[in-house]
Structures are given as C-alpha cells and as structure tokens.
Specification:
632 residues; mainly alpha; two-stranded antiparallel ribbon; 6% strand; elongated; coiled coil
Length: 632
C-alpha cells in the first residue's frame, strides 16, 4: 500500500493534471448521474441518440453540440467526447535564463517584501538581545583587567563573523562567566536597496553575455533552476558604477563591501564564494526574490546559415539597460548639440540688469561732501539721492570718489584737447570699468559722462598731427554728449559698446596713418551722424567694417574650435588604437594559455569576461581551436 502511494505521488509530481472544458462538463454529468437513476424511457432515448450519431458518423465537435442539446432537454445523462485533462509538465531546468523590465520590477518588489519581514524579525530579536545584555551580562565597569582582556580578545577574534554566528559564540563563551554582550542585529537600510538594484542590472548584463557566448559556440544555454549562473561582483566596479557618466551609487569600495556583507547576512545573497582578493566574488540570488524568466531562442544552426527572424517563435526581449556604451554616446552627442555657446554679446542687450543699491543700507557711516571738485578746479553739486546712496563703507566711498574725480569741466577739457595733452592717451581698463559697474555707487548718467570723455580722449590721437582749436573741440564735446550712448542706460551695455567704438577709432587711426594723402575731417564733422557711407570718411561709416570684423572673429573662433576638435579626435583615435592593441594582446596571451593547457575553456571564458569588453567574447569562439567542450 505504501509503495503504491509513493508511486502515485511521484507520478503527480512529474505531471500535474488540470481539467479542460470537456472535463468540467463531464464532472457535472457524473455528479448528476450519481444522484439520479435511469428509467426505461431515458435508456431508450440514450440508445436512439447513440445509434443515430453512429450512423451519421458525427465528429466530436458535432457530437458534443448535440449532447448539450440532449442534456438540456432530458437532463445531464450523456458525456462529451474528447480530452478531459490537460497535462502540465514542470521542468527542473530553464532553457534561456534572462530578465526583462517586468522581471526586474517583480524582483525589486520581492526584495522589499523580504527585507520588510527581515527587519520585523530583527526588531524582535533585538529585544531579546537587550534583555540578555541587561539581565545576564556583567557591566563593563565591574570587570577586572583579566576579564576585560578576555573580552577584547574575543571581540577582536570574531569581529568579522555575522551577528547571529557571533551571538552563538557569545552564549558559549558566557557559560562560565557572562562578560561579553551580544551584538544587535542591524536592519537592512534603504541604501542597500540601491546597491541591490545595481546588482540586478549587473546580473542582467552577465546573463546576456553568457547566453550570447554559448549560442555563438553552438552550445545549449539551458541551466538547472537550482543551479543558476552565479553573479560576479567586483566591489570597486560596483562602487564606481556610472550611468551616462553619472555615478549611480557614489560610494567607496569599503562601503560596497559592507552592503554586500549585510545582504549576505540577511539571506538576500547566498552561496558566497571568494577565490582571492584579486578575483571578483560570486553569489546567487535568493530564489524567493529573483524572478528569472525562460526564453526560447531559435534552433542551433551553423553561423553562416543562421537566420535572424523565425516566424512563430518566442524571442528574448531586448534589455536596453545593458547597452551602457550606446547610451553614453547618445548622451554625449545630445549634450554637444544642446550646450552650444551663445553668440558674442547676445546676452547683454536682452538681459540688461540695473544694479540698484538702497540708500542708507549700512549703519555707522560718515557722509561725504556734496561738492566734488573737478580737475579744472570747478566744484559741482551732486543730487541729494546720490550723496545719500553713497553713504557706505570707506572702501566703496574711495572707489566711487576716485572714479568721479576723472570727470573734467567741459571748458577745461576742450582746452586740454586743443593743447594735445591726450595725444598718447590710453583708455580706462575694462576690468576697472567692470569693477566700477559692480561695486561703485555711481549713477548711470555719471558713468556715461566719464565714458564719453574717455572716448573723446582716445580719439584725440587721430588729430595728433593736426591743429584743432578749442572751439572745435567744444562743439564736438557737446555733440557727443547728446548723441553718443543716447539710447543706452545700463553700465554693462555702455562698456560693451565702448569696445566697439575703441576698435573703430583704432582702425581709423591706422587707416589715416597709412593713407597720408587723405585729409582727416575735423572732429565735429568726423563724428557727424549723417556720414554713414564709407567714402564719406566719417566715424559712423565704419559700421560695415565693424560687421566684417565680427564675422572674421567668428570665423577665427570656428576655425580654432575645429582645430581643437581635430586634435582631440586624433588623440582619441590614438588612445582607442592603443587600448585595442593592449586588449588584443591580452586576448592572444589568454588563448595561448588555453592552447598550452594552463586554462580550460571555462577559465578562458571567465578571463575574457572579467578583463575584456563584450565584443571579444563574440570573437573568442572563432579564435580558439577546440570548440567541442560544453561550457554550460
């Protein structure tokens, strides 16, 4: 009897049966027949029905349809024909192990559920540990020197063990004298979930590499469910793992090791194996957590005749998470297009900023004299809001006063121009002007007046060899005070425009020095706004020349950029070629070791997988001589 039961149990394990629609219908018929007896009239009707069906040679489908009509009229007396049960076979192996996005999501859900239960259990155990330490173990301050030394030696010797194993040893050590406390069981934190997610991504990539290699070797990819390929973990690569050049975890190697140890202790990672510190460790995922899928790849064919697509077959989903190099390249190209620099000066006109400093912003400051003396000896009165706004620290006052002291009375300024005092004048430095714009408490009008005088001083060298009287200079000063920077109010934009005007003055000076036969117009006529043609030899006629200069600068900038790009491309190609040469040398040396017997096929595969890019695994089957060994 027992043998029969065991035999039936084994058969049930090998094949589990489930009823089809016909089976379910026939179950209802059998249940009806158990509670109903057949009278002679029903027996005759059943005999006539079966004889008629036999004479007409009905198919199972036609027969079952008429059975339903008969049973509906008379009762459930007839059984349908056909298969009543479906046999579902449960295999102990997986044809093509892989994970897709849904499997990864399910794995992470299983992980969170597992960790939640583990943390609840850890809280309960920690309560018992606290009770043990408080009630059984002696206080550290009550121990003598010998007991303290014994305690320290025990903790140092067993510090690398898991907490539960450590606590078991503590119980044994405390049998005679309880001096060593138990350790608390640490719960799994959220940071470990990020590490686990990266490990799942590594496993996806490693499975994809393994399957591609075995298919290229014309070998089966099947694997037992209880002997899945191990995950290889390099702690340094785990800690520095990046996606699109962005660190995924941004941790150190030691932190990565601690997370792996914590996951091993919790049972998330099992079957830990370490060869030495120079080799990656290998582990398996807990079967309760990992959602592994089974894919069906095409039948094995020779590489030359292998088809790409097969109608009616299931294919492995394309896991885009593993294509890190392609993603990086796309990101790099997209970034290069999206971060192009704006054209020179485009931000100044659109985003002018008015730097306003509130009056009386600081306490304990001294006021300044509302009368500021000019270089000509004349004193001018500043508006009240300017003097009030300038009541700040000593350094800011000094900077503002020094700048305002450069403003000259117009009469004195014209006399100095006529006397040739500015024939060798060099304009104010741009960094100084930017400093004034940012830090000095100077109004926009004051700033503009000083910049206009600075521009006139720079233009004086054009008439170095000509006699220009005071009256001419007075008219020119009045003209430029009204027209120059007339539509500009912001200091930043004035400085930008000053660069353009100074370049035009320098161009005009060089042109007139070169063409001595051409007479220079007097300043008032030279700065006439109506002289916009280049043949009129006026200042505003240089605008087309300035535009050509900007195009030239843009072209130079583009040429420089192209030269730098070409140089970088040459460096990149050289580095890539050097890297490929080194990798090919590694591959050749590994194949030589395999051919000489130092490596077997599995060791060769592991070496290429751990030390060389994935492309070399595809080349490997064609480069080795013996392809008959099964690596699965």
């Amino acid at each position: 009897m027992n043998k029969s039961i065991n035999k039936n149990a084994n058969i049930a394990q090998k094949s589990a049966k489930s009823l089809t629609e016909i089976g379910i219908y026939n179950q209802e018929v059998k249940s009806f027949l158990k509670s109903t007896s057949l009278n002679p009239i029903i027996q005759a009707a059943i005999k006539n029905f079966n004889d008629s069906a036999y004479r007409r040679k009905l198919t199972n489908l036609q027969y079952n349809k008429e059975v339903e009509e008969f049973n509906t009229t008379h009762g459930y007396y007839l059984l349908k024909k056909g298969t009543e049960t479906e046999v579902t076979k449960y295999y102990s192996y997986i044809n093509y192990p892989y994970l897709d996005r849904n499997a990864i999501k399910a794995t992470m859900d299983n992980y969170r559920s597992f960790v939640y239960q583990y943390n609840k259990k850890a809280d309960e155990e920690n309560k018992l540990i606290r009770n043990y330490n408080n009630s059984v173990v002696k206080s550290h301050y009550s121990l003598n020197d010998a007991e303290k030394k014994r305690k320290t030696n025990f903790e140092r010797t067993n510090k690398s063990k898991f907490v539960r194993d450590y606590n078991e040893l503590v119980i044994e050590a405390n049998e005679q004298n309880a001096i060593i406390p138990k350790k608390r069981i640490q719960k799994i934190k959220y940071a470990s979930e990020l590490v686990f997610h990266v490990l799942v991504g590594f496993y996806v990539s490693q499975l994809k590499t393994r399957n591609a290699y075995l298919m290229e070797m014309n070998r089966p990819t099947s694997v037992l469910k209880n002997a899945l390929p191990k995950l290889k973990i390099d702690h340094r690569k785990l800690a520095t793992h990046k996606i699109a050049d962005i660190p995924r975890l941004d941790i150190c190697k030691k932190t990565a090791q601690n997370h792996i140890k914590r996951l091993r202790e919790a049972g998330v990672l099992i079957n830990y194996l370490m060869i030495n510190q120079n080799k990656p460790i290998s582990v398996n995922f807990n079967a309760q957590i990992l959602e592994i899928l089974d894919g069906f790849y095409p039948k094995s064919q020779k590489p030359t005749n292998q088809q790409v697509n097969h109608v009616g077959r299931n294919f492995l989903h394309d896991n885009s998470e593993c294509n890190y190099s392609v993603l990086k390249e796309k990101k790099r190209k997209g970034c290069a297009k999206s971060t192009s620099l704006n054209k020179c000066g485009s931000m100044l006109e659109e985003n002018e900023s008015n730097n306003v400093c509130p009056a009386d912003g600081y306490e304990n400051t001294k006021g300044i004299n509302k009368k500021i003396s000019l270089e000509g000896g004349e004193k001018i009165n500043l508006p009240n809001f300017l003097t009030e706004k300038r009541q700040t620290g000593r350094k800011t006052n000094q900077l503002s006063d020094n700048f305002l002291s450069k403003l000259i009375n117009q009469k004195t300024f014209a006399e100095k121009l006529a006397a040739g005092e500015f024939d060798n004048y060099k304009g104010l430095r741009y960094d100084y002007l930017l400093k004034i714009e940012q830090y000095a408490l100077v109004s926009n009008d004051e700033f503009k007046q000083i910049i206009i005088q600075d521009f006139i001083k720079s233009s004086a060298k054009i008439w170095r060899n000509h006699t220009v009287y005071v009256g001419e200079w007075k008219k020119t000063i009045n003209q430029l005070n009204e027209e120059l920077f007339s539509n500009i109010t912001q200091k930043e934009t004035i400085i930008k425009k000053l660069r353009e005007y100074r370049w035009k003055l320098k161009f005009a000076k060089n042109w007139f020095d070169k063409n001595t036969e051409v007479k220079t117009l007097f300043p008032y006529a030279y700065f006439d706004k109506t002289r916009v043609k280049s043949n009129e030899l006026g200042f505003y006629g240089l605008h087309s020349v300035w535009k050509s200069h900007l195009k030239y600068l843009e072209k130079r900038k583009e040429e420089k950029k192209n030269l730098e790009a070409a140089a970088n491309e040459r460096k990149r190609k050289t580095a890539v070629q050097k890297k490929k040469t080194a990798e090919l040398k590694k591959l050749t040396n590994a194949i030589k070791k395999y051919e000489s017997g130092q490596y077997n096929l599995e060791q060769l595969f592991n070496y290429v997988q751990d030390n060389l890019p994935h492309d070399y695994l595809i080349l490997l089957p064609n480069m080795i001589k013996n392809q008959n060994t099964n690596l699965a």
